[in-house]
Amino acid sequence: MAKKKSRAVLPPGPVMVDVAGYALTKEEKKRLRHPLVGGVILFARNFENRRQLTALTRQIHKARKEPLLILVDHEGGRVQRFREDGFTPLPAMRELGALWERDPLLAMRLATEAGYVLAAELRACGVDMSFTPVLDLDYGVSKVIGNRAFHRDPRVVAMLSRALIQGLQLAGMSACGKHFPGHGFVEADSHHEIPVDERPLKRILEEDGAPYAWLGDSILPSVMPAHVIYPKVDRHPAGFSKRWVRDILRKRLGYDGVVFSDDLTMEGASVAGDILARANAALGAGCDMVLVCNRPDLADELLSRLEFEHPAESVARIRRLMPRFAAPDWDTLQAETRYQNARRLQSQIVPG
User: Fold this and answer.
1) What value does the CA radius of gyration of the chain take, rounded to a whole number of Å?
2) How far is residue 311's CA from residue 137's CA, in Å, rounded to a whole number?
3) Separation in Å, CA 299 to CA 65, 115, 237, 241, 349
4) What is the mean pLDDT of the chain?
5) How many CB atoms lie within 10 A of CB 189?
6) Beta bridge partners of 199
């Protein structure tokens, strides 16, 4: 009797890709089995309803023997990919910062509850992680950050983000702080432009970079650098800069978590060249994984051209982001008192 072919156990690779719709196509299944792929990012276009989303994440997890990490940008406020069919409306982080001005301890409590609701609902549908929280300071000038930031004071940002991360952890979800060392001081949107921040290193680290130093990788297990150029530090954007990733983040701040590049198809990444040059620049700078979003043609080009041996320490860091315990399904979650209380408390900021 012929034995069934068993798929090799592939470790997570250094490239994160996306998918087009509500279910995997044959081509996408093949792409996800490529050894260089290490994760999948979802968008609003991948959500029809909870049942469909759960089926999609199950498909993605089954694509390989060692399941791929599934992530989404689901912060609250205007950046919340899944909003219907029972998903709780989550506050913009600036609302928690405003509450801090009136009642700091209540703000921290509600940040934890918001983090728990966010993570519990995503995990009930099979999503492993969200790219949150935003650690950028609220200077009131950034078009793309805006009310996604908690506060202008880095101490408040550190405290509220730590509280929100505690909520994520209660549901078994890892956090990702962004956009290192800080995107809030520049007006330009790196999705469409190449922002330049002229401040000196000392000032950046004393303000924008301070939450990363205070939180560390034990609280903040992953970080995403900004597609921003800080010319007084390095001529390359932070995510393509050995100075920022290896020398400052890893050595000076002692950070040993995952470093994700921001999306390599953004305009802010174009300074590095074509998709291969961008990936090589990010990985060469010290990123553990690069994102290629909304361009499956570029993802396939990168997978066919990239020659990169993923360091064992990068693989180990990525594996640490996977949830460490099973999550209840949606119906079980709805019946849990912990979840009901958290949802009721966070509704003080966003009714519904």
Assistant:
1) 19
2) 33
3) 22, 31, 21, 22, 39
4) 94
5) 17
6) none
What is the Cβ-side half-sphere exposure of residue 61, based on CA atoms within 13 angstroms?
15
Contacts 24+ apart (CB under 8 A), 213-217: 213/253, 214/154, 214/158, 215/158, 215/161, 215/162, 215/165, 215/177, 216/253, 216/254, 216/255, 217/255, 217/256, 217/257
Q: Mean pLDDT throughout 264-293?
A: 90
Residue 192: Cβ within 10 Å count: 11
Percent of the chain with pLDDT over 90: 88
DSSP per position, 240-275:
G-HIIIIIIIIIIS---SEEEEEETTSGGGGGG-SH
18 is written with which tokens? 């996306």
Whole-angstrom distance between the N-terminal and C-terminal Cα of the chain?
59
Going from N- to C-terminal start, the domains of the chain cover 14-71, 72-347
Cβ atoms 119, 112 nearer than 8 A: no
Q: Which positions are annotated as active-site residues? A: 191, 262
Dump the DSSP string for 208-244. TTHHHHHHHHHH--EEEE-S-B-TTT-SSBGGG-HII
Residue 267 has pLDDT above 80, yes or no: no
Q: What is the pTM of this model?
A: 0.94
289 CB contacts (<8 Å, ≥6 apart)?
A: 12, 14, 15, 16, 38, 39, 258, 259, 260, 261, 314, 318
Look up residue 146 and give its DSSP letter: G
Q: Reduce the DSSP state of residue 79 to 3 states and report it.
A: strand
Which CATH number is associated with domain 72-347? 3.20.20.300
Residue 117 corresponds to which tokens in the numbers above? 């609701």
Using the predicted structure, report yes or no on whether residue 3 has a pLDDT greater than 60: no
- Please give the pLDDT value at position 190: 63
In order of 36, 42, 195, 318, the CA distances from 60 in angstroms are 15, 11, 35, 17
SS3 42: strand
pLDDT of 120 over the 50 cut? yes
Predicted local confidence at residue 210, as pLDDT: 97
